[in-house]
C-alpha cells in the first residue's frame, strides 16, 4: 500500500509573500526591501528591522510566509539560491530607469510655458528641481507603479514630474485655476502621461467621483490655518484606506512660530499624525518671508480622522478678496436697489455661491453674490442653476465680461441653456450684473446635458442620445456610442460641472452633441 502526498507548488510561498506585500498598497517598499537584503547576503532579524524600518512582527511574518525559500543560519536569514530567480521576477524592485537630467529639462520647459502665478490664489512658483525632488522622494518611499495619486492644486506641475519619473503612476489633478488645468492637459497629451484633470473649488466640496479613490494625496495649500485645514479635510475624503497618506508642503518663518503651531494644530485636529517632516524639500521663486523654502509633512490618518469638512469659509488665502482678513461685506440697501433696477425685480438679499447641488427654480429672480469670484465661479453657477431667470453680481473686472471676446466665449459654452445679458458698471462703477434667461427649448443634446450638469456624464449623455436620436437606440448602443465619442474615457465618470472649461466646451461642441 502506497501513500500519495499532494505536492506543494514551488510558487506557493512566493505568491503568499506577494499577496502580503500587495495588502500594504503604496507602503510596500520596506517589505520588498526585506527580500532585497536577503537576496544579497545573510542578515540578522535585528538588521532587517533596522535597515528596512519595518516592524519586527511584520518581518517575522514575511519570513514565515516565505517558508523554505528563506534559509536560516548563524549569520542570519537569506533567500535560498534556488528561490532567487523567482523572487527577482515577482517580489524584488524593478531596475531604476536611469538619470533624471532629461526630466528636469522637460519640467523647466513646462514651467516656463505655464500660466503666471495668481496672487489671489496664493500661487508661488516652485522650482522645476522641486517638482522633480518631490517625485523622486515619492518614488523612493512608496509603490508608485499603478498607484493613484491625487494632487489638490498643482501650479508647480508635480503631477507631470511624477508621471515622467514613474510612467505607471496614475495622477489626478484638482484645481480651481482653469489655466493650470488646460496647461497640464496639453503637456500630458503631448508626452503621453497618465494625468487626468478635474475642476473644483475645494471650499464647496470635493467632486463625488474622487471620494475614497486615492492611495496618496499631495498638496501645497494656502499657508493659513484655514487653508491647510480645508485641504487636509478634502484629502481625508479622497483617501481610499488606512494605508493612504497625505503629503503636504508647508513652511513658516522662524520669526512667527505661532503660525506654524496653529497650522500643525489644524492637521492634528483633523486626526492626522506626523509620520515625518522632510526639511527644506521645496524651493520657491519667491516666498521670501519663509526663506523661499518649505518642508514636506508626511501625514498618516488615524482612526479618529474626520471624513468630511462640509462647506468651508471662502476666506482661506493670504492675498486678494478671499484673504482671511478680507471680506466683501453685506450688500447695502442702495446696492440691492440698484440690482433690482437692472433685473426688474425686488432684491431683498444676495444668495451665497455654491454649486455642489442643482439650484432649482424659484418664484423670484435669484441674485447670487459672486463679488469674490476668482474667475471660474460664474460659469459653474450658470451650470448649477435651473431657473427661468437668474442673476449674478460680479466684479466689474470679472474676466468673463471685460471684453466682447470674453463674453462671446462664455456664451459659446452656455448658449444652449441660457441667453446672457451683461450689465457692466451696474448698479455702480465697481460691479456688474449678469442676467441669464432660459432659452425655453431644451436646446438639443447640448441643452439636455447643460440642464443636468450634476449627472454623471456617461449616464446623462447616453440618455440624451436616446432622447434625441432618430434611430431607436438601446442603452447599450447609446453607451458604446458615447464611449467612442469622448476623448478621455476617465471623463465619463465625472459630472459635467466638474469638467475643466476647455474640455467642457469641446464636449458640448463635439460631433456627437
From TrEMBL:
One of its GO terms (biological process) is polyamine biosynthetic process. InterPro entries: BpsA_C (IPR002723), DNA_methylase_N6_adenine_CS (IPR002052), rRNA_MeTrfase/Polyamine_Synth (IPR051720), SAM-dependent_MTases_sf (IPR029063). SUPFAM superfamilies: S-adenosyl-L-methionine-dependent methyltransferases. Residues 110-291 form the N(4)-bis(aminopropyl)spermidine synthase C-terminal domain. GO terms for molecular function: methyltransferase activity; nucleic acid binding. PANTHER family: RRNA N6-ADENOSINE-METHYLTRANSFERASE METTL5 (PTHR23290). This is N(4)-bis(aminopropyl)spermidine synthase C-terminal domain-containing protein. It comes from Actinopolyspora biskrensis.
Amino acid at each position: 500500500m502506497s501513500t500519495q502526498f499532494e505536492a506543494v507548488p514551488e510558487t506557493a510561498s512566493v505568491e503568499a509573500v506577494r499577496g502580503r506585500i500587495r495588502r500594504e498598497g503604496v507602503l510596500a517598499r520596506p517589505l520588498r526591501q526585506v527580500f532585497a537584503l536577503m537576496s544579497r547576503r545573510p542578515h540578522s532579524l535585528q538588521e532587517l528591522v533596522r535597515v528596512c524600518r519595518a516592524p519586527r512582527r511584520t518581518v517575522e511574518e514575511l519570513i514565515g510566509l516565505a517558508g523554505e525559500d528563506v534559509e536560516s543560519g548563524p549569520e542570519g536569514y537569506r533567500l535560498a539560491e534556488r528561490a532567487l530567480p523567482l523572487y527577482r521576477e515577482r517580489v524584488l524592485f524593478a531596475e531604476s530607469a536611469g538619470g533624471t537630467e532629461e526630466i528636469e529639462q522637460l519640467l523647466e520647459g513646462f514651467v516656463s510655458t505655464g500660466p503666471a502665478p495668481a496672487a489671489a490664489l496664493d500661487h508661488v512658483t516652485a522650482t522645476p528641481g522641486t517638482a522633480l525632488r518631490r517625485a523622486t522622494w515619492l518614488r523612493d518611499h512608496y509603490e508608485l507603479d499603478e498607484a493613484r495619486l491625487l494632487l489638490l492644486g498643482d501650479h508647480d506641475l508635480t503631477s507631470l514630474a511624477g508621471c515622467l519619473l514613474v510612467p505607471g503612476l496614475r495622477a489626478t489633478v484638482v484645481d480651481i485655476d482653469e489655466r493650470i488645468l488646460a496647461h497640464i492637459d496639453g503637456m500630458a497629451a503631448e508626452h503621453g502621461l497618465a494625468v487626468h484633470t478635474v475642476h473644483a473649488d475645494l471650499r464647496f466640496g470635493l467632486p463625488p467621483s474622487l471620494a475614497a479613490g486615492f492611495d496618496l494625496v499631495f498638496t501645497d495649500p494656502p499657508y493659513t490655518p484655514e487653508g491647510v485645514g480645508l485641504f487636509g479635510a478634502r484629502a481625508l475624503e479622497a483617501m481610499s484606506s488606512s494605508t493612504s497618506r497625505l503629503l503636504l508642503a508647508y513652511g513658516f518663518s522662524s520669526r512667527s512660530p505661532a503660525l506654524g503651531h496653529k497650522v500643525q494644530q489644524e492637521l492634528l485636529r483633523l486626526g492626522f499624525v506626523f509620520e515625518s517632516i522632510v526639511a527644506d524639500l521645496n524651493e520657491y521663486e519667491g516666498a521670501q518671508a519663509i526663506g523661499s523654502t518649505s518642508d514636506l509633512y508626511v501625514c498618516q490618518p488615524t482612526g479618529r480622522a474626520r471624513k468630511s469638512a462640509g462647506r468651508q469659509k471662502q476666506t482661506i488665502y493670504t492675498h486678494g478678496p478671499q484673504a482671511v482678513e478680507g471680506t466683501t461685506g453685506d450688500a447695502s440697501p442702495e446696492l440691492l436697489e440698484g440690482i433690482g433696477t437692472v433685473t426688474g425685480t425686488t432684491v431683498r438679499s444676495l444668495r451665497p455661491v455654491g454649486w455642489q447641488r442643482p439650484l432649482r427654480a424659484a418664484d423670484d429672480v435669484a441674485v447670487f453674490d459672486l463679488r469674490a469670484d476668482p474667475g471660474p465661479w460664474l460659469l459653474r453657477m450658470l451650470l448649477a442653476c435651473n431657473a427661468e431667470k437668474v442673476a449674478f453680481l460680479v466684479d466689474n473686472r470679472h474676466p468673463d465680461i471685460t471684453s466682447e471676446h470674453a463674453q462671446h466665449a462664455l456664451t459659446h459654452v452656455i448658449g444652449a441653456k441660457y441667453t446672457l445679458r451683461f450689465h457692466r458698471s451696474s448698479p455702480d462703477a465697481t460691479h456688474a450684473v449678469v442676467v441669464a434667461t432660459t432659452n425655453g427649448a431644451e436646446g438639443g443634446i447640448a441643452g439636455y446635458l447643460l440642464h443636468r450638469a450634476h449627472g454623471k456624464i456617461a449616464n446623462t449623455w447616453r440618455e440624451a442620445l436616446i432622447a434625441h436620436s432618430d434611430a431607436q437606440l438601446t442603452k447599450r448602443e447609446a453607451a458604446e456610442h458615447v464611449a467612442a465619442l469622448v476623448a478621455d474615457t476617465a471623463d465619463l465618470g465625472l459630472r459635467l460641472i466638474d469638467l475643466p472649461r476647455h474640455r467642457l466646451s469641446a464636449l458640448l461642441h463635439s460631433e456627437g452633441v
